[in-house]
Design brief:
Elements lengths: L5 H24 L17 H13 L2 H21 L5 H10 L18 H15 L4 H13 L11 H15 L8 H10 L5 H15 L4 H8 L2 H7 L3
Amino acid sequence: MGALTPRDRRVLFGQAIGMQAGLAGGFLFKRNRISIDVGAIQPPDSPLAENAARVCAEVSPSALFNHCARAYVWGCIFAKHAGIAFDTELYYAACMLHDLGLTPAYHDCARHGECFTLDSVEGASALAKEAGWDAARQDALAEAILLHMNVVVGLDHGAEAHLLHEAASLDCLGLRAWELTRDTRNAVVARHPREDIKPLLLDVFTAEAKQRPKCRAAFLIRYLLFRPMMRMAPF
């Protein structure tokens, strides 16, 4: 599981072409439009949310934990601006747990796939089951985490999956950052500092691509300028 087939690569190339066209239009016509009180965005108050944050903090370097926390805030900003309804607890869990597979504690824990997202889902699903989530919510959590490394994730895959993809793309690559005012961006980063997240992610994704050459990380690095885009992200 997780290994890209030739058809998968063709689909991702097509998505990349469409995404670039859409980003060009967004950069020209949607600059500095989103201004939101970041202080009003708070994590959900539930045992599962607290557990997800605890696990993330225990196994992740602080820079990676802050990346996950920023992803939640970025997604909430996009959702509020666009009027997207979503499951707050599910989305928070997806954000805090989506990169578990990049940590030594969870890396290769699934033992059945070619992508770290499968390892992340292994850990996230265990917490969701422990919290008594039904099968539909567990599937939605897994879907959001599995898809966040795709080039494009539309709302048809679920609000949480769409928001996590948009948020992670902004935080890692700077995509859509121009849609937010500088004050809004600065407020998010002040709340959850970036520290050394760029070199950290470059290192772990490079290692992931080397170990799993058929995974999406390898595809993004090889064909979609992932490393230079991350280095040039406006943070």
